Amino acid sequence: MDTIFYNGMIRTQDNAYPACSAVAVKGGVIMRLGCDEEILPLAGKNTKTVDLAGKLMLPGFIDTHLHMLNYIEFLEQVNLSEARSLRQVQELCAAKVGQAAEKGKWLGGVSFNQDHWEVPQMPTRKDLDAISQDVPIVIRRACFNMSVVNTKGMEMLGIMGEREGLTQMLLGFYDDGTPNGIIRQHSQDILAKAVTIPALEDIKEMILKACAHMAKQGITSVHSEDYINYAVDSSELIARAYKELAAEGKLPLRVYQQCAFRTKEQLEAFLATENKPGAEFGRYKIGPLKVFEDGALGARTACLKDGYLNDPGKKGILIHPKEELYELFATAHKNGMQIATHCIGDEALDVTMDAYERVMNEYPRVDPRHGIIHCQLMTCGQQERFRQLNIIGYVQPVFIESDMNIVDDCVGSDLAKQSYNWRAYIDMGVHISGSSDCPVEAFDILPNICYCVTRSKKDGSKTWYPENGITIDEAVRMFTLEGAYASFEEAVKGSITVGKYADLVVVDRDIYQIEPGEIQDAQVLMTVVNGEIIYKR
Amino acid sequence: MDTIFYNGMIRTQDNAYPACSAVAVKGGVIMRLGCDEEILPLAGKNTKTVDLAGKLMLPGFIDTHLHMLNYIEFLEQVNLSEARSLRQVQELCAAKVGQAAEKGKWLGGVSFNQDHWEVPQMPTRKDLDAISQDVPIVIRRACFNMSVVNTKGMEMLGIMGEREGLTQMLLGFYDDGTPNGIIRQHSQDILAKAVTIPALEDIKEMILKACAHMAKQGITSVHSEDYINYAVDSSELIARAYKELAAEGKLPLRVYQQCAFRTKEQLEAFLATENKPGAEFGRYKIGPLKVFEDGALGARTACLKDGYLNDPGKKGILIHPKEELYELFATAHKNGMQIATHCIGDEALDVTMDAYERVMNEYPRVDPRHGIIHCQLMTCGQQERFRQLNIIGYVQPVFIESDMNIVDDCVGSDLAKQSYNWRAYIDMGVHISGSSDCPVEAFDILPNICYCVTRSKKDGSKTWYPENGITIDEAVRMFTLEGAYASFEEAVKGSITVGKYADLVVVDRDIYQIEPGEIQDAQVLMTVVNGEIIYKR
Ligand SMILES: [Zn+2]
Ligand SMILES: [Zn+2]
User: Fold this and answer.
1) Taking CA atoms, what residue in B is nearest to A17?
2) Which residues in chain B touch residue A46, judged by CB atoms under 8 angstroms apart?
3) What is the mean pLDDT of the segment spanning B386-396?
4) Do B29 and A497 touch (CB under 8 A)?
5) Which has more confidence, A190 or B76?
6) Using an 8 Å Cβ cutoff, are A300 and A308 in contact?
7) Where are the domains of chain B?
8) Do A289 and A259 form a contact (C-beta atoms < 8 A)?
9) Residues A358-377 pLDDT 10s
10) Which ipTM value was assigned to this complex?
């Protein structure tokens, strides 16, 4: 054996053999499971033995939706997530404005969320002008669906002259009809002018940096969406960066690419290359077509059937009209490609489910595993539709930390209590995997697992429809075996089973035994991918 | 929808949705499951609706080990399975001897089993000379491991001159040292001289005939071993026959080929062609390397650690010496090929498990799913080894009908009660699938399921270690979902799940509700492959 981990509290997620204390690994594969007395004698003179000191070992965590490159870019920008007022946003930005001026770059701020402010009011262009009128500034909302630009920036983008009613762009306007600096949804593409696409080697470095950070959280596999990170289709460049790292043996994690494309033509061009659905390039695997069908709740762009109760007349937006969505889906589906669609509102969900049903009926094929990313607002009847069509869900438990503040106001408690209902999915036998949508939220898995169980805020100050919560074991499964299922890899990873990849995580306490509220405090001690320890605390 | 089956008692084998009354099918795929009220409205004007009249529908049956071509050849030979004396064997053969003489062919008899005779004595050459001294005659024991030839036949084979102690062949001898006509194990290869390998078109016809018969038993997928049916390696010819049928859209069932080869060189030559492990040619898929490692219990060639209690000094035979077995396994394993090995005795099992462990340790790879076909005699400790190495089992429940007469005598009750222990496999989480080994036994699935539950003889006259039996649901799983697992296809078949192939069977009574002993009387009413009704009673 290469390595034997022993003296552990190993919870396998394999119902056939749920727990043991030791695991023997060779050539990246789990070779044997058992008690220490059975496994330790398998050690040869070159076997490394690792004493787990009674700690909890789980299958390596799998995050099924995040944005790896975007996460790194976020690190280099002003983090506004902790700001609790417009004033604080201005102060945080002001501290970095000189630096941006020196480099001749835009000043970027990320992850603001006015819902957390003392006065929850959307900032506008003039608020940012107070920071600088000479340096272009853009701040992006935590949900990604909205950015605010200062006057200098708006001028540089060439949209300062737009007037309400005369533009096709999704801009916000002051009462006088001039732009207020708010740019919504895909209109944010214009901000590509404010960024420079990094060179291949820089992208490779960013990937490695992101992987190193994720390894600290016990993540061994990730589904990452990166192709339109720079607003334009950069699939060729980014796929090349991943493939080179994989070929060089440098990619520490297994990456399943969620391939975001906005048009059928872009997708067709992509599929005409070597990037066939499910194609594996070492640890880099071509995953589903990723489609956006609506926006976000905080930005009030999530598309709701009955509109926003707290913003009468507003219904949110549908990104792709029905026929266009169908064409995009049909192109992927006919080519044997999986599909994962961003839907937050119940109207977006219906439109997307209709399109799924249509392509599946028109071109029946086995085991497509199409899914809905986020799947937040919905009725029980809509959830039942997941079961009927065998659609999978990708949920972000951490979202409830802030969403529990606004959902009931936005849609009313009747719909709210049917929504984010992880309990119902599992009871119906619907496959749901867990994810962070990082950098929308941090990719820390253990706090995510905590939210699944407690349905409470971090500080315990509020619990939200706890009856929709799930057990700790179900929560762990969401971030392990169900994550593997989402990439058609449940036979080779997602549980600690003889014959699967040795992708493992060690946690500093047994999260099955402690108070659920304390799961968020648990720390990852060690992360193992393919039998190699890639992180140790 | 193409077809809607409704008003049924549908037991899905999908834990997430165990039962329903209606299933909608399109393009060969299960599109929707539900109650009649949900599913019937999906019917369009071209939809065929099939009233199941309250009958039981299950996933299509999967038989994971049989010999399709051999079965057809058996049909054309004298069936001796019902004979209860040597006299009856002679009478049954005598009735057909004229016909064989006319055609200038050998007279072949199959499936005799002297253990069922009034006087259970092995027949010899002179017993067959009483039928004819001019027409060559060969009769084969039900277990396949032994044949008996008359004097004319022995002369034509050129082995009448062999003497005890001077031949390498596994022959039987009279006290005077001359051959008694009994030919054992691989020495039966010489009987190839007695058969003619059919032409391609004839093989295709034989396959179609076998499939039609299997369809009547509700079989929708089969793992068939055919390559050395004519004693010599006929893999090229036989694979071609299957592939042509598949390409012509004529193959009614899904066939997973168990690729029997005797030598490493034959296997290497095979793998150098388009026949890569897991390669799919329509419904024909390249399956595991099939290896024989011992013989059979009735013929006393199954290899036992402690020998035959009722035949002191006899231990059975090992077909491949350890090193040769290892070389064969290593060739398959390194090429990514699954392996399935015939083992009946506990000694053969140890040797085979050792070789599996060695190749897996030396060349670790994920999810190999190597297995043991038959896996009859073993200790609890050996069964535990299935779990440790994640080895799968292929069991033939029907074998207990005759084996319960002899096992305790052969090996003693202590080993007997640990053997054929399906309960233990399932409790340990070991994957076991069900099969018939037809033409060794009939491929009727429902009687096989009955044996799983009752552990009793057909007529109820004896029950054998009933504590080793399993539940009806577990038994059905052995012949459905576990069968799919054995060919790496659990994601696309083996349960009635939206997105899987519409492979279905309808049975005339609810075998979950009736007296277990009556399960064997249940009849298949309808068999559906890929949404098409291929058999209807
Ligand atoms: Zn996202
Ligand atoms: Zn066989």
Assistant:
1) B429
2) none
3) 97
4) no
5) A190
6) yes
7) 3-54, 63-67+198-528, 82-141+145-194
8) yes
9) 999 999 999 999 999 999 99
10) 0.87
